[in-house]
Hints:
Number of helices: 12
Order of helices and strands: EEEEHEEEHHHHHEHEHEEHHHEEEH
Structural class: alpha/beta
CATH topology: Rossmann fold
Shape: globular
Radius of gyration: 21 Å
CATH architecture: 3-Layer(aba) Sandwich
Bound molecules: adenosine-5'-diphosphate, magnesium ion
Strand content: 15-25%
CATH class: Alpha Beta
Number of strands: 14
Strand order of the largest sheet: 7-8-9-4-10-11-14-13
Amino acid sequence: MQPARTDSRRPDPAPVASGYSLIVRDLHVHLRSRHGTVHAVNGISFAVKPGEILGIVGESGSGKSVAMLAVMGFFDREAARLISGSVTVGGTEWRELAAPDPWSSRSPELAIIFQDAVSSLNPVLTVGSQMTDTLMARQPKSGGGMPRPAARRRAAELLDLVRIPDAARCLDLYPHQLSGGMCQRVMIAMAISADPSVLIADEPTTALDVTVQSQILDVLLEIRQRTGMSIVMISHDFGVIARVADRVQVMYAGRIVERGGVDDIFSRPQHPYTRALLACSPRIDRGEQASQIIPGAPPDMRLAFAGCPFAARCAEVMGVCRRDEPALRPVGSGAVLERYAASCWLPRIADAGNGDGR
Ligand SMILES: Nc1ncnc2c1ncn2[C@@H]1O[C@H](COP(=O)(O)OP(=O)(O)O)[C@@H](O)[C@H]1O
Ligand SMILES: [Mg+2]
């Protein structure tokens, strides 16, 4: 799927600096499916600083999960028709992104949690056995796998860290004896047990009710505070992102269309897609419940199209948008990687990007 023409003036600056816990450069992931090749991720670059929470937001199908699964190293050549770019983590740059074995994680520096914690746990083993097995098998950065008694003590400490009351008792329970929120706490405890430098949280609160959702977000904030871990928080919900993220990047059609500090994105969104997504987000503080949706549908990621992928749904569309795809260009000032950036031909964005050399 190659757009006819793209904006070559100022492409998305690939991260070059060190001092980041995770750097992703020009990631492309095209997946095989029964109905053709899905161009799920199309050249995204970003970096996360130590202790930072980067929010990634976008409608369902925008490529958030596929991008993060590729970063983790979960796609092999069978699944991915094309997987390219590089991932730098723990001082190593991985250029061969296809996994040798499916579901073999790239690096102990990376950990991931998913939406469905209940089914991620093994139903026939107690929480304690699952956690101690993990701790005994893994090679934490601080030294090799642990003997069982030490692993059990560590498991209880980890459950304490995620604020599970009566951690010792929880170790002897089976997953079905725990609520969804408790299961997610256990998954977080297991994910951070090898002391990763980056935790990827893919919609970790989507299956939970609002009160529990808020508690889980508090747990993640506290873990960041206590361990200095970076967190990549993925959500379709701007409310979740606003609550925890330091910076936000907005994804659409497998691309980053806007990114910036959380305050900039919420108070001065530039890209029409970000504006539309924010307009559809329920404001919990105003008691709003149901969210509306953005009219139209995202492009079919199996088909080629020219121009901006949002053009067909954009209220401010211009002629150029249907011909040429805009690159992600800096808006305003700041260090390259943290700089406010958006990919849009609208003069308010294109002019700001042109004015400020890198
Ligand atoms: N295993 C897969 N095989 C083929 N296509 C997939 C697979 N997983 C996701 N996709 C497709 O890739 C695109 C991006 O999906 P995904 O990353 O899951 O979106 P998001 O997490 O943003 O909701 C979608 O078009 C989806 O249908
Ligand atoms: Mg997803």
